[in-house]
Amino acid sequence: MSQWVVLAVNSFSFGGLLFLLSAGFSLIFGLMRIPNLTHGSLFMLGAYIGVTGLRLGLDFWSAALLSGLAMAALGGVIERFLLRRLQGQELPQVLMTLGLSFIIADLCLMEWTGDPISVSTPGALRGVVPLLGFVFPIYRLAIVLIAVVIAAALWLMLDWTRLGAMIRAGVDDAPIARVMGVPVSRLFTTVFCLGAGLAGFAGMLGAPILSVYPGLDAEMLPLALIVVILGGSGSLLGALVGSFVVGVLYNFGPALFPELAYVVLFLPMLLVLVLRPQGLFGRQSL
Amino acid sequence: MRRAALALAIIALVTLPYWIGGSYYINIASQILIWAVFALGLNVLVGYGGLVSLGHAGLFGTAGYAAAWLVAAGVGQLASGVGAIGLTVLMSALFAVLALRATGIGFLMITLALGQILWGIAYRWISLTNGDNGINVSARPMPLGLSLATPSAFYIATLMVFGLAVAAMASFVASPFGACLRGTRDQARRMTALGYDVWLIRFLAFLFSGFWTGIAGLLFCYYDQFVSPHLLTLSSSAEVLLMVISGGSGTLLGPIAGATLVVAMKTVASAYIERWNLVLGAIFVAIIMLMPEGLVPGSQRLWRWARRGRDLAAAATSR
Amino acid sequence: MASSLSRRGFLVGTGLAALPFAPAIAQSEPARIGLLTVKTGPLAQGGIQMEQGLTLFLKDRNNTLAGRKIELVSADTGGNPAGAKTKAQELVERDKVDVIVGPLAAFELLAISDYIAEAKVPMLSLAAADDMTQRKPNPWFVRSSATSSQCCHALGDFAAKEMKLQAVAEIAEDFAFGYEQAGGFLRAFEDAGGKVVQKIWPPLATADYTPYLAQLSGIDGVWNGFAGSNPVKFNKQYADMGLKEKYPVVGGWTAYDDALLKSFGDEAVGAVSASWYSTELDTPSNKKFIAGMQRDYQTLPGGYAAGTYINGMCIEAALEKIGGKTDNKQALIDALRGVSLTDTPRGPLRFDHLGNVVGNVFIRKIERKDGKLVNSIIKTYADVGQFWTYDETKYLAAPVYTRDAAPAKL
Known about the structure:
The complex is a heterotrimer of chains A (286), B (319) and C (410).
Chain A: H1 2-32, H2 39-55, H3 60-83, H4 90-112, E1 128-131, E2 134-137, H5 138-160, H6 162-172, H7 174-179, H8 184-210, H9 216-231, H10 236-256, H11 266-275
Antiparallel strand pairs in A: 1-2
Helix pairs in contact in A: 1-5, 1-8, 1-9, 1-10, 2-3, 2-4, 2-8, 2-9, 3-8, 5-6, 9-10
Chain B: H1 2-14, H2 16-19, H3 23-48, H4 56-72, H5 77-99, H6 104-124, H7 126-129, E1 135-136, H8 151-174, H9 176-186, H10 188-193, H11 198-224, E2 226-227, H12 234-247, H13 254-272, H14 276-290, H15 295-317
Antiparallel strand pairs in B: 1-2
Chain C: E1 31-37, H1 44-60, E2 64-65, E3 68-76, H2 81-94, E4 99-101, H3 106-119, E5 123-124, E6 141-142, H4 150-161, E7 167-171, H5 176-191, E8 195-200, H6 210-213, E9 221-224, H7 230-240, H8 243-246, E10 249-251, E11 272-275, H9 284-297, H10 303-321, H11 329-337, E12 340-341, E13 349-351, E14 357-369, E15 372-384, H12 392-397
Parallel strand pairs in C: 1-3, 1-4, 4-5, 5-6, 7-8, 7-9, 9-10, 10-11
Antiparallel strand pairs in C: 2-3, 11-14, 12-13, 13-14, 14-15
Helix pairs in contact in C: 1-9, 1-10, 2-3, 4-5, 10-11
């Protein structure tokens, strides 16, 4: 019995981490139609930069903020100077973002070596809560809270600010938005920065749970893709729901269907794509 | 001019074992040809059909595993080859039926998922595939009694298959079917309005693509004499996609150029450049910055630009 | 890090490689050791250490073994079977190496085994695939580290007899290395009176092990066989879930390798493991090796670096036996298999008739000493071969350890 409770709680917790990872990807893809295959690398690089921040004496939260800001800056550079010229050209975007991910992965290997790096849980959140015979780490519960707070902040921004209105307009119909005077190019850069920054921040937040190592980027990117496909791109609610659905699949799948461990994430995604290609809450057909 | 270049290329390729300097390099050339066939097969969908697939390594691996398994089970080489290709085409049909429910990113994700599912099967169905320990293929086929055991012999056989593939692609591109496929890429709605069955055209293209991907998989199985789940990974699919895009999708020579670039970097350059992965990534970024349409179209553009400059200069000085 | 290790400069262009047949080489020409390793991607961690170990060894010997100058040629396989094959061909056909050290992974080794046997090049690898020296032995292969199950046999014995564990859950990655280790542990553990009641196999690339950890129940101990970077994640998540206090944990050599100690925190203290190497072993060569690694690479070595260092020592001993000559490959492999050393970083070693090492297996426990984590040796099983205490013929008649290994009564 307690096994299922642990799995249920971890579904939320892992889902929270996935939301932080995927929200940025969903925004970028929803608004700019760019499949940002560098996203996993930004997550990993953010975590590595956070580690360096810790080594330089920063506390955990400052290091996480540093990760986010650094990745936002990098994202801005990437969008402005590399991706902007590829507007609407899907294949070159794929090549560019994949090429960048190779470069980032190798640079990380050069700078931080191949050894895995463990990150201690921030002091205030160490410890566990008892949970029906098991215990559950407080930090993982904190991740859920952080995810919800960020989701709320993003929702407020999207629904209540001018920037948010412009983003929503751009998601719905970018050319018309341009005609209406929305500065779409600057918007794109802003959104890319935001998405990249979220990824970097998520990388550092995930570090006490996942640790940091080469190959982290390739492990996280497919998860982000699945979340956005399931939930629908360009939709915050979709990213949230998608994250928790994937969290549930990730936790209950191996327990219920151990033989299907490799496909338990892909089969539902396949189902959704085949039956409802725009995802559960997506606004555009893919 | 073009005929001369083509003739020269053919002569160079056929005599390659003599001038390339060692069996190691002959093997590299065979690898390039195999991946070029793979890339050409993928290009049918990506370049001419406008459908980006990230699951083609699954089809590549299906052919390889089927051949390895049939040979190990004692089935004759020819029958194994036919069986492997047949199974791959069937698998492509299955892929197509599922993936063609969507286009664009949806298509990409469905093919990605299908490729991953096949990879998972190769990994876990150990009684069938031997898992990550892989299957050894003890001997290469002997078509018409000729041995392919030496690098040169295998290279010549691969070159012939490659030649067939290029010829098939060329005739496909020039054919009405090729034109239909390009039509569905550029103006799907108009094609439907004109009465074409867009779904069927794409479906048949997928089968054609799967066929040649299977041929490449079969060749690779005999080249390496070892099949393992590594053939079906996502990075494998991504690699061949990168070959197509970097070389120039929607062109005949593009995939070949892309395959040459990637294989050369991985095998030859990695011996001289320690951080070859980084360099490869940088090359991709550079290609996109300077020649977003790919190496081959970009080079042609540069060539035309250079010639025009030269012609203009010649015209100016002749006054 | 731009490395000066690969002796690429001298192989200018393909001109040299085009020489069809090298004339009878005077023995003053350097002998070449080819290293197949992984320097890019997720396996790079072990691969870089392999290169460091071998480079250090050659440096310690001034690049001269048995009076012969030695050149090291490094090749990056990329961590996949096709790459391993290509690079093996590069080393053999283009660089004309006399002996190969590596590759790193079992699936790479299996992909090139036939080729190496055909090319008749002696190969010393750390890859643990059991059958390379058991049911599909390769006469050109020598392994000085261990089979996957070799150390885990000893660990199973120790866990039952000395730790008094009775019901253990096994958890390892879902691939052959995991199965073979687990099978070895299970057989020895159950023969000594214990029982393996659960087997859990997370996929190789799993970010969060919690879904698997939640399944643990009805046990009094956990065995794990994780490799690469996964042990760091696993142990952290294991401790986070409060399991460290509930069930003692034991592991294979990759799970608690000495090179990983710097990445662990308090969550790993108390973990017991079995390995063929430990930095705490007090032999002169081990001290020299560790000092060299600290000096040149500022790192504590683990099994990957020690493995190639020891391979270097074996090559040296073999060359000394045959007077430094490398033109007779058969003599070289025979000499390699006949090597018997007393002072190595892992202690005494020799090889059985299938090319696998017979040597010490150390049971270690992680402790904190002077603020650093160390693998203290708590027991040494001497003279452990790949078949443990079992009869070789009966052992080989049974199949290799798989996912569903059940104890066979031998």
